Backbone:
C-alpha cells in the first residue's frame, strides 16, 4: 500500500497530471472483442499489459520491474476509461482488478506485483481507488506481457 495519502479535493484528472503521468495511444484492436463494455453504471475493461516490460516474472523480470509493468497496465486501462467516458472525473469507484502475472509454477509473489497497480489507483482516486482484487499466476500471457490486468469501474450515471 502506498504511504502517500491521495488528496480528496483534487480531481482524478488533476492528480493524474500532478503525478507526471500521460496516456499512451490506445492500442489497435485485434480479434473479435471490444476494449470496454458499459452495463448500467459499471464499465468492464478488457485486459491490458505493459508493452515495454516483457517476460516471466521471477525469471526475466524482477518483482520491482513487474510492479512497474502493473502500473503501466493501469495507465493503459485508464486511457480506455478516458476514451469511453471523456474524463477520469466520471469514475465513482474502482470496483475490481483481475491481474495475471506471467510466471513459472511456484512463484507466489503475484500480490506484490499487483500492488503497483493498486497503489497507483489510490494515488489517483484516493479512497475511491480502493478495490477488490485477484492476483493470479499464468504460465503465458499474450505478447509475452509480464503482467496483464482487467478492471471493473463504477461510473457516474
Residues:
Amino acid at each position: 500500500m502506498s504511504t502517500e495519502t491521495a488528496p480528496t479535493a483534487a480531481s482524478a484528472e488533476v492528480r493524474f497530471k500532478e503525478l507526471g503521468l500521460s496516456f499512451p495511444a490506445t492500442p489497435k484492436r485485434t480479434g473479435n472483442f471490444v476494449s470496454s463494455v458499459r452495463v448500467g453504471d459499471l464499465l468492464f475493461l478488457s485486459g491490458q499489459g505493459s508493452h515495454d516490460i516483457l517476460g516471466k516474472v521471477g525469471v526475466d523480470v524482477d518483482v520491482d520491474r513487474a510492479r512497474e509493468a502493473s502500473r503501466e497496465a493501469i495507465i493503459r486501462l485508464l486511457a480506455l476509461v478516458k476514451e469511453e467516458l471523456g474524463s477520469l472525473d466520471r469514475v465513482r469507484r474502482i470496483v475490481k482488478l483481475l491481474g495475471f502475472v506471467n510466471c513459472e509454477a511456484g512463484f507466489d509473489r503475484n500480490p506484490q506485483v499487483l500492488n503497483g497497480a493498486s497503489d497507483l489507483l489510490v494515488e489517483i482516486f484516493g479512497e475511491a481507488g480502493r478495490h477488490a482484487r485477484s492476483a493470479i499466476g499464468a504460465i503465458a500471457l499474450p505478447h509475452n506481457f509480464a503482467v496483464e490486468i482487467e478492471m471493473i469501474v463504477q461510473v457516474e450515471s
